[in-house]
Fold this sequence. Notes:
alpha+beta, four-stranded mixed sheet
Amino acid sequence: MSTYDLRVRKVYNWLGSTELMIELYGLEECVGFGDTFLEAKKNLSESIQRWEQTFGLDRLPPPNNRPQLIFIDAPMEKAEFTFINHELLALEQG
């Protein structure tokens, strides 16, 4: 996993508390969540393994030939969390 860039963000979970989200940059479908960076990174590794089993290695982004970058995004705000949940409800209903 050190050959890929990562995006890290503190987000709200469905309980309303916060946790870390780490996603593989360039493959946002591979995401890990956790209370700590190590826990989220472990869950991301499991997500990448499931991706590989489902779609194969050839669908992963090309690995970097340089040091890994970790992008740290601003924490999610309550308004964004509320908006996302509103959109998800609208999709379910309609």
